[in-house]
Design a protein that fits this description.
This protein has 69 residues and is an alpha+beta fold. Helix content is 30%, strand content 29%. The protein contains two helices and four strands; from the N terminus they run βαββαβ. The protein has helices at 15-25, 49-58; strands at residues 3-8, 30-35, 40-45, 64-65. It has a four-stranded antiparallel beta sheet with strand order 2-3-1-4, with helices on one face. The longest helix is centred in the N-terminal third of the chain and has 11 residues, at 15-25.
Length: 69
C-alpha cells in the first residue's frame, strides 16, 4: 500500500539537508518531494508516517505531521 503524507522539517535549509533526508528515507522505500522554502517534505511509498518521522529523527531532524485544514 502506498501512503502519501507531508511532514514539517523546520531545520531543513540546504542541499546537504535534502541529501541527508533522501538518504534516510529512500532505503525504506519512500520517495521524498521537497518544498525547501516551506521546509516541508511530502513522502510517498510503502512507509508509515511514524517510520518516516523516526528515520528523520535518527538522521538528526525534528519532523512533525502537517495537518490539512
Amino acid at each position: 500500500m502506498q501512503d502519501i503524507f507531508t511532514l514539517s522539517v523546520p531545520d531543513m535549509s540546504c542541499g546537504h539537508c535534502r541529501a541527508s533526508i533522501e538518504g534516510a528515507l529512500q532505503p525504506l522505500g519512500a520517495q521524498p518531494a521537497f518544498d525547501m522554502e516551506a521546509r516541508r517534505v511530502t513522502v510517498s511509498g510503502a512507509i508509515s508516517q511514524a517510520a518516516a518521522i523516526s528515520a528523520l529523527e535518527d538522521a538528526g531532524f525534528d519532523a512533525a505531521p502537517v495537518t490539512q485544514g
